[in-house]
Amino acid sequence: MTDREAVADAVDEFVSLLDGDDRVAFGEVGGVYRDASEVVVTEEGVRSASEFTTTGVWCRAFADGAAAYRFTTDLSEEALADVADRVVAGSEGLAQSTPARVDAESTHRAVHEGWAAESVTERDLDEKRAIVRAAAADTETTPERLRLYYSDERSEVSLATTAGSVVRSVVNRADADVTLVPPDESKVRRHVGTARGARLLDELPEAVDALDRDALELAKAPDGDPPTGDAVVVLGPEAAGQLVHELAGYLAADIAAFGFSPLEPGDRLTDAPLTVDDVVEPGSWGSLPYDAEGRPTTPVRLVDRGRVESFLYDTAMAAEAGQSPAGHVVPAIGFEQAPRIHHRHLRVRPGEATVDELLADADLYVRRFGPAYYRDRFERTQRDGAMPPSTPYAHDVADRIPDSAEPGRVALPVAEGFRVEDGTLGAAVEPTLSWTPGTMATIDGIGRALREVTGVTSKHKSRIPYAVTAPAMRLEAPLRGRE
Fold first, then answer.
1. pLDDT tens digits for range 219-231
2. pTM assigned to the model
3. Which helix (H) or strand (E) holds 130?
4. Ordered domains of the chain (ranges, CATH)
């Protein structure tokens, strides 16, 4: 029996186990067959290169109105029976006060072969290693430190449920994380990712060249004191994309159920014509054809000309809100952790402002932010902690939020920023921008040109891919010194 056949048999066996368990109201079982490779290059050359195949089965089962999640690479009948029993016991053990309602009548069977014209498996490891090494070596900057981490995988993902749903998809995903530290300068870091398979290998040299140019520009800029206090800030397309990524986090139904979001559908976010869609860009790093519930992924308008139009839901939260789920239960990279409600690929509609118009009277230009920091300790603890995959559990957590909690306050450290003097970029500076969803009300300019930013975010210990295509924006926000 081949590994692929073993995965398919394990999925069938697991579904049968759940289907025959009277405690299970609904269950989802996914089988994964992955061909993967990794290459790590530093300033000293190739540090490691490897390729491997992994197989596994994951399950999310509902019992007593709650869900638990398990993943196993042991496909034996004994192991599957043990995992099935554990996942059901985990659901029952949550003692969730708000039971999830599952639409078990909505079933479908479908196949999606992915967006890659050339699979990552069609390039051998030696070729990948040579391309990654050449891309890392071809920099004009003489780095004090350089790290290029490349990884890819071709995953055949099958999903079956106790309601009879069967979907199958192929994901050819590749990404690279590049860090370059010029002498006596702050590091410059970029992530690039795609679901178009081997195409990233051909695009990797250009991505490293772009990072190199940005590093040189920062190195050539004079040092200066960052502006502080209330300031007019222009966000370049990548920084604007990072900000919209944070905004969309507060439009997820589970985050709202925690009590962390100050927003509701229908709220006026800004008078600016800000329009944000969560789309399924073919081949995008953040796109997928079906989510972890077997739902086909469909576009959703989150913000329409400044007004919040929709939240992101799973089936349980959608039923509670009287809405339709649109495929937002995104699997974690690798499937070892539970899927989470999350956006796939955010697209912001461009505006009419030119670069000169945005920079006029501005105090700061931000090209990139560093990792966000949630100032409220309770919100930070819950976001960083592992949560069960049954989202209504968030209501139980909300009941324990202390009166002193002030969620929705985010510190965004500027990783690549410049003072603006008379409409021109000047000294390189790194203040921290204090942001809340209410800050979006100050937007008074949206640029014309779009650029894409990709990344991996952590939500309740699950590593989730995301992508944003956005234009530059101008807004007002308080600035502090580097924290």
1. 889 988 899 999 9
2. 0.84
3. helix 125-137
4. 3-220 (3.30.2290.10), 229-480 (no CATH)
